[in-house]
TrEMBL record:
The lineage of its organism: Bacteria, Pseudomonadati, Bacteroidota, Flavobacteriia, Flavobacteriales. Keywords: ATP-binding, Nucleotide-binding. Part of the ABC transporter FtsEX involved in cellular division. Important for assembly or stability of the septal ring. InterPro entries: AAA+_ATPase (IPR003593), ABC_transporter-like_ATP-bd (IPR003439), ABC_transporter-like_CS (IPR017871), ABC_transpr_LolD-like (IPR015854), P-loop_NTPase (IPR027417). This is Cell division ATP-binding protein FtsE. Residues 6-227 form the ABC transporter domain. It comes from the Bacteria. Belongs to the ABC transporter superfamily. SMART domains: AAA. It comes from Croceivirga radicis. Pfam families: ABC_tran. One of its GO terms (molecular function) is ATP binding.
Length: 227
């Protein structure tokens, strides 16, 4: 049996003083692909933010990639995030530098110092997302789908144990969404665990996986036919 990479027990999630989700019980095992679905405002993003330390966990018990979210201190958060790959809806690429330098910026920020090792790692992750010839382009020279592939490459830089993808296809057209999804599928097939918040039900039906729904302040697993 694969061990859990994420375990939440009787967790409540707050945005400041507002209770967003309560009585959350969830286990995600290594190698799983899990969707988080729900309407806008149902708590998907708050759920994801709790996992990467952007929102504190004050009630319940939670561990993610061996970090205790309840006792997580401010100076632990960079170490937690080194074990996570985070992909956002809006890419968050630095517009003033090319793709290679975007990725190099992240490596330097996470402690890499050897230039040749950095160059090798950048080439490796760009190859994984089918973008190895695009390193000298600037973000504005790339399509939305290409920028999201770069964002996924960036998430892979430190060989994360878990990838958190928050609406990664939210700004993309249906065809491009499928292309980005294929990249994520391949990464998952190679053994990487992925949790993806989405409202794109067409993708969920095309690529079925375990699906967790946020609704009415609760979180529960849904079977594919009920979506």
């Amino acid at each position: 049996m694969a061990e859990p990479i994420l375990k939440l027990t009787d967790v409540s999630i707050f945005q400041k003083d507002n209770l967003v989700l309560s009585n959350v019980d969830l286990q995600v095992k290594k190698g799983e692909f899990v969707y988080i679905i729900g309407k806008t405002g149902s708590g998907k993003s708050s759920f994801m933010k709790t996992l990467y330390g952007d929102l504190p966990l004050s009630k319940g018990e939670g561990t993610v990639v061996d970090f205790n979210l309840k006792t997580l201190k401010e100076n632990d958060i960079p170490y937690l995030r080194r074990k996570l790959g985070i992909v956002f809806q809006d890419f968050k690429l630095l517009s003033d530098r090319n793709i290679n330098n975007n990725l190099k910026f992240v490596l330097k920020a996470t402690g890499w110092t050897d230039t040749s090792k950095m160059d090798d790692k950048i080439a490796e992750v760009l190859d994984k997302v089918g973008m190895k010839t695009k390193g000298f382009k600037y973000p504005h020279e790339l399509s939305g789908g290409e920028q999201q592939r770069i964002a996924i490459a960036r998430a892979l830089l430190n060989d994360p144990e878990l990838i958190l993808a928050d609406e990664p296809t939210g700004n993309l057209d249906p065809q491009t969404s499928v292309e980005v999804m294929k990249v994520l599928q391949e990464i998952n097939n190679n053994g990487r665990t992925i949790i993806m918040a989405t409202h794109d039900y067409a993708l969920i039906l095309k690529y079925p996986h375990k699906t967790i729904k946020c609704d009415g302040g609760k979180v529960f697993e849904v079977i594919q036919k009920a979506i």
